[in-house]
Write a structure and sequence with these properties.
By secondary structure, the protein is mainly alpha-helical. The protein has a single domain, classed as Up-down Bundle (Methane Monooxygenase Hydroxylase, Chain G, domain 1), CATH 1.20.58. The chain contains 16 helices and seven strands. The strands form three sheets. Strands 1-4-5 form a three-stranded mixed β-sheet. A two-stranded antiparallel ribbon has the order 2-3. Helix 2 packs parallel to helix 4, helix 4 crosses helix 5 and helix 15 runs antiparallel to helix 16. The two termini are 44 Å apart.
Amino acid sequence: MPARISDLSISQSEDVLNLYPLISRNGFLPVKQPLQRLADAYYQPWEQILDDIPTLLREKTIRSRIGNLGVLTAAGLNTEREWQRAYVILCFLTHGYIWGGDIPSEVLPPSITVPLLQVSSHLDLPPMATYAALNLWNFSSTGEDFTDLDGLKALHTFSGTEDESWFYVLSVAVEARGARIIPLMLRATDAIKHRDRETVTHALSNMATCIRQLTQLLDRMSEKCDPTVFYHQIRPFLAGTKNMGAAGLPHGVFYDEGDGVGHWRQLRGGSNGQSSLIQFFDLVLGIEHPSTGNYKTPTESSKPAMRAAGELSFLEEVRFYMPGPHRKFLAGVSQLDSIKDFVHSTPSSPAYQPLRQSYQDATAAFGDFRQAHMQMVTRYIVVPSRKPAPSLSSSKNLATTSMHSDGGMVKELTGTGGTDLIPFLKSTRDDTYRAGLRVASRDAGRQSEHTSG
């Protein structure tokens, strides 16, 4: 059974030990279930709007409701769980306000802006609905085992549907199950100092098994989340304000702090690309993704955009959409000894073959995970985007439509995180497979040299 963080020996080096306080025994999920309510009566106006948000969005009255809301501050928040709860509330209100009308709102009022900026600053997160707000801190569980998908439920949704709840908590279950491999992989990076190939091999084998289990979890999405409901009722409210000019936000959104003070902000919406767990897998396997993921017009190349000198890749950029401690954790992991380099440096003797094979298995499993995710995106986004909206849909999908000059509609297939969706997903999948194939091709080359010699 994989080791838990609390079980690890204190003999590990300081650079590894210093990382553990930045995460919990549940990995990037909290130790306890998120708060379901702010107890202070001062914050009940926020809580009440969040309770009513599916109705307010359906009736398109959320902006008037928030317009009557006074400016509350974060002064009454004390524990981290309270700060996280406030962030969840304000992010839902933010996206509901921006996307909850016939056209998107280019201005966020002070009643949201002022406390959201305070809370975001405290948590070291952007003032936008991130993966943390939608998933990590937005669930309840029937027990303390967050890996039990059937025992999870989202605290809040925009649509009020079980489909949306299932969409969020499936990612929670993935995070919880994936957390079990984190200690083993950190131990493996530490073992490199001692050239301990058995420990590294064992960890990589367990990682491959773990990732295959996560892929099986992804396959359960269709059990309770309908693609049409997702695309037309849920996805529009997950969109950010970056690369959304075609949807009516050419400058992003102005965060009005009152008295004419404020800033225009263009921020990515919540997406699984903001999962620290997935980036942890990339880092410990040494997988690099140079694509920026930025959207290109239909006249440009269909290949993913490569970063210019000094430009951040998409996966580097979205670390700023992760909670501060998680971002610091990943930065620390990136400085640890490289498993990939260790595998590449091993001699071609049979004794090291299990190590090289375990690395190939882990990268192949991770590539398969990304392939399954891309197939899910095709089913839940690409296919519905090519079909007319169902008659039950009461409004346009603002986040995925824009007007031609002749008044017709054109759809632009971007991710909620603002990425050029399918090319980006293909690129990250191929990068993942390629990492293992390089080890395989190197072994084949050595075998050929040995045979010809």
